[in-house]
């Protein structure tokens, strides 16, 4: 359609150029935002290891199971394997040479005390039971060793090292109640063995009790921090989902309130026409007059029901019915619902606020659109301009409304950002941006297309069919009933 056929009207105001997009909360292109966010969120290897330490593993998962890289997930096995390979020959040599234990018994005891540590990565509690039994059995055997005098007992130095490694694995996996139980059992067993301590030996029960408690406390605190962060993340996810759902419900209630006004107007017209029919058409038969009276009574009853419904839908503060990009109040609730015919006033108000906007309005668009489409087109433009004012002050914006035989096309495009533009910081907003646009095009059976432009601007295009059900009730994300998409429209 040519500019002449459209009845082009324009208003523009020079100003500094901003570039946050119409209908877009952050004013950044999706690709640029993703790239910068990915670079900012990429932690180093040490940070990833620290996060893996804080992340609690599941019942059937090994330590570091949530680490992002394969070598990080294999690290616990490597460390524990290194400890076992180091402790096994050392334990056998010390038991044989220093304690004077028989070589066969020393080998068996060394295997029993060290090899179960390999199980600590996935099942530390079972590994602890095996090692505890082996260490206790070793302490009993050492009472009969030839050279036990002058050495550590009941726990040898190698047993202490292996036990502390086991305590660390336990602290990262088990609950605080389990850790306290393990610690108390360790102390109680050391105290019982103390009654059978050989002469001239150094009792290491207290040493293991203290060191084990310290390791359990540190690793347990680290695991508790991970648990707390995980719970916070889960609550934030739930809160975000609830907020998105609440945003969608609020916008649908707002649309319902506005449509009530449109339907109530037509019902009032029906009532007036039915009541005045006998006076405008004299000589009407009695049955016909009664029929018109019944129509008027039904219309009045319907209006009464709608007014009762309105008391529920209307917000106490009168939000949701005002005109202008972001206005609201009780006065707006009493005003007629706006439409395409009032877009010129909306653009002029936006221009007076310092936003350069150019309007192209097709001649006869307001008369051609049915009430629901007329209101939806106005609200889509209103929301888009509100987002430009909020997030892209000074950005040049073009608004175009055209109409053909089948549909009304609403197009809002803003330009790129200016370097010196002062914009609102990103954060949660009213929630009536693209969420509301999607709901309105779904109401009319139209389509909505939004996205960044190559020059850094943004585009909002809505197609609203003139016939109810003529379009496909779909948008770019219309099936997302929670009202969210990857452009974070809930912030706009």
Question: Can you walk me through this structure?
Answer:
There is one protein chain. The chain is an alpha/beta fold and 492 residues long. The chain folds into two domains: 268 residues, Heat Shock Protein 90, CATH 3.30.565; 187 residues, no CATH class. The protein is 56% helix and 8% strand. A hairpin with a 5-residue loop joins β6 and β7. The N terminus and C terminus are likely disordered.
Summarize the SSE layout with pairings:
Elements: H1 3-6, H2 30-41, H3 45-54, H4 70-97, H5 103-114, H6 124-142, E1 152-153, H7 157-171, H8 176-194, E2 202-203, H9 205-280, H10 286-313, H11 330-334, H12 343-352, E3 357-361, H13 365-368, H14 371-391, E4 397-403, E5 407-414, H15 434-444, E6 447-452, E7 458-465
Please sum up the structure shown.
With 492 residues, the protein is an alpha/beta fold. It has helices at residues 3-6, 30-41, 45-54, 70-97, 103-114, 124-142, 157-171, 176-194, 205-280, 286-313, 330-334, 343-352, 365-368, 371-391, 434-444; strands at residues 152-153, 202-203, 357-361, 397-403, 407-414, 447-452, 458-465. The chain crosses the membrane at residues 74-97, 103-120, 127-143, 155-172, 179-196, 202-222.
